[in-house]
Amino acid sequence: MPMPDLFLRNARIWTGVVSAPWAQAALVRDGRFAAVGRATDFDPPADAEGLDAGGRLVVPGFTDGHAHLLGTGAAKRVIDLKGAASAAEAAQRVATRVAATPPGGWVRGSGWDQHSWPGARFPHHRDLDAVSPDHPVLLLHSSGHCSWVNSAALHAANITAATTPPVGGAIDVDEHGEPTGILRDTAARLVSDVVPSPSPADRIDALRDAVAHAHSLGVTTVHAMDVGRGELQALYALHDTGRLRLRVRAFMSASKLNEWFDRNLATGDGDDIVRIGGVKFFTDGALGSMTAWMFEPYEDAPGAGFPLQPPEDLERDVRACLDRGLAPAVHAIGDRANRTALDILERARGISPGLPRRIEHAQLLDPHDIPRFAALGISASVQPIHATQDMAKVDRSWGARGIGAYVFASLLAAGANVAFGSDTPVETMDPIAGIHAAVTRRNAAGEPSDGWHPDQKISLDAALRAYTSGCAATVNEQAAAGCIAPGHLADFGILSEDLFALDDPMRILEARADVTVVGGDIVFRRGG
């Protein structure tokens, strides 16, 4: 049965269309905008459903250009370690969960960050052994690039002083050569691989929680990263039953590359709800785990990070994907990792030139590499909330090199397509928080008062585009998504505050999504 037309009226619509940025009303038919314009332009059908915006700001539906969708839902089921002020406080939260866990059951958590603890030192398995001698414990770092485990978990994974870390990983050891319980990047899989897998029903429930969370924030599309077989099956299962009312562009995990090849998956497969975006690759680790790959050593730690796989292997796999019609999305944090990713994509630019290319995070860039994004047609898929959350880490670990971190204004000035996301559950999915960070370069407390590297502030207009049409361009969907225009998918949000009328940009943080619409269907209304 076809949906009735939807008439959006009494609205202040920021369309995202450069030639016609503002409108007052819109008509939605069959899930797409049929008309957009002034209130006096419309004579809507008598049976159209009315949606009165109450004079509020309406924007295209936000896209989270880099999210871990299943992980976001799963994070609501494990111990939340964000905000823990010390290893002892984190361990106490673990103790509470241990008390409620059957004997021998795994205890999981995420969000700890030694950078916010006294001395900024990595913790030890002894801290966890004291509260959980028998339950194996696996705690994911806030960056997602290392884990802290206890002795029971080390034993379950058969990790000893004689264990050789896998390529692209490290097992921290003490002065006696014994594992400390810190496993970096690929070494963390030694433990995660022995944790019982969630059931299909668990995955579906986690995804439903993540989708509802996205809707509450005005997010209508998510570029889901590192999607594995189980997550893809759960997405299809939700979609097949009509319960997935969020657009998902799936970027498949490179760890299952041969499986995707055997299934003949290609970028663009699917429909307007679930579509294959490409394959997610890793060049290096992360700043928080000190595994971002740098040209020069860290200021506060030995070493300069490392690649997660030999660059020649990464290039081989990227080329193989392009040959098979799969677009690459390449994670790169450190300046050397970004240079390597750009070099690989430049050498492969002649393979399937119609496929989009993107670098995820593009966190620290040498000035000479900034113009290469536009020159090579590579999108910078970045997360503005990282800039204000990580600025102290950047200053401490990268020092003067931090001038090249999160250079959104420079990328835009050089002509690059910039797409914004969150890296949820690493940081909040809320696009409002990301917009605030990009526009002010200040954290929620208003610090620093002039903004961190204030020359990299961008306009509100540019930030909104990065969360809408910029993301659409990274998956070649700019002709059908990311704007409020005739023929485009009818995805939009009604905000509680007019971001363009605020007297202080810090007040951006006061805004909320009051209504979220996907394909003309109201999927969220604040207060029910």
Structural class: alpha/beta
Please bin the fraction of helical residues: 25-40%
Bulk shape: globular
Mean pLDDT: 96
DSSP strand count: 24
CATH class of one domain: Alpha Beta
Low-confidence runs of at least 5 consecutive residues: none
Largest sheet: 8 strands, parallel
Oligomer: single chain
**How are the strands ordered across the major sheet?**
8-15-16-17-18-19-20-21
Layout of secondary structure:
Blueprint: E1 6-9, E2 12-14, E3 22-23, E4 25-29, E5 32-37, E6 49-52, E7 57-60, E8 62-67, H1 69-75, E9 79-80, H2 87-99, E10 107-112, H3 125-129, E11 137-141, E12 146-149, H4 151-156, E13 169-173, E14 179-185, H5 189-192, H6 200-216, E15 219-227, H7 229-240, E16 247-253, H8 257-262, E17 274-282, H9 311-323, E18 328-332, H10 335-347, E19 357-361, H11 370-376, E20 378-382, H12 384-398, H13 408-413, E21 418-420, H14 431-440, H15 460-466, H16 469-474, E22 492-495, E23 513-518, E24 521-525
Helix pairs in contact: 1-6, 6-7, 12-14
Write a brief caption for the model:
This protein has helices spanning 69-75, 87-99, 125-129, 151-156, 189-192, 200-216, 229-240, 257-262, 311-323, 335-347, 370-376, 384-398, 408-413, 431-440, 460-466, 469-474; strands at 6-9, 12-14, 22-23, 25-29, 32-37, 49-52, 57-60, 62-67, 79-80, 107-112, 137-141, 146-149, 169-173, 179-185, 219-227, 247-253, 274-282, 328-332, 357-361, 378-382, 418-420, 492-495, 513-518, 521-525. The protein has 528 residues and is an alpha/beta fold.
